[in-house]
Amino acid sequence: MVAIASYLGLSRTELQDRVQSGGSLADVAEAQGKSVSGLKDVILSQQRTTLDSNTTLSSDDGEAAVEQMRSRIDPMLNATHTPGEGMGMGSGVGMHSGAGMGVGMGLGMART
């Protein structure tokens, strides 16, 4: 959430407050004069960076996870939530061979 808040010119707390008061991430971006496509780029770039640092994933698996996120990002950006409700997004990739291994990545926010 830090990268998203930074792109939007907000603190993490300000972003949480706006989303938890019923706004979607897309609404917040537009209110801040930022493009929703730029917001998508920030989220996908952050996911790619996280996956690239994971040495247990092949580059193909990392790319598959980014593509999965890309295919699911619009509903996440347009979702609204009732006040006090948590919000999050996530994507995961798993491989199974013998004992198997997998990795997942999520992005979420909740008021604490």
Strand and helix order: HHHHHEE
Q: Strand portion, in percent? A: 15-25%
Give the radius of gyration.
15 Å
What is the count of DSSP helices, taking H or I runs of 4+ residues?
5
- Major sheet: size, sense and barrel closure? 2 strands, antiparallel
Kindly state the percentage of residues in helix: 40-55%
Give structural attributes:
112 residues; alpha+beta; 16% strand; single chain; two-stranded antiparallel ribbon
Plain-language structure description:
- The protein has 112 residues and is of the alpha+beta class.
- It contains five helices and two strands.
- It has helices at 2-8, 12-20, 25-31, 36-52, 59-78, and strands at residues 87-95, 101-109.
- Strands 1-2 form a two-stranded antiparallel ribbon.
- A hairpin with a 5-residue loop joins strand 1 (87-95) and strand 2.
- The radius of gyration is 15 Å and the shape is elongated.
- 15% of the residues are buried.
List the helices and strands and how they pair.
Layout: H1 2-8, H2 12-20, H3 25-31, H4 36-52, H5 59-78, E1 87-95, E2 101-109
Antiparallel strand pairs: 1-2
Helix pairs in contact: 1-4, 4-5
Task: Give a short summary of the structure.
Helix content is 54%, strand content 16%. It has 112 residues and is an alpha+beta fold.
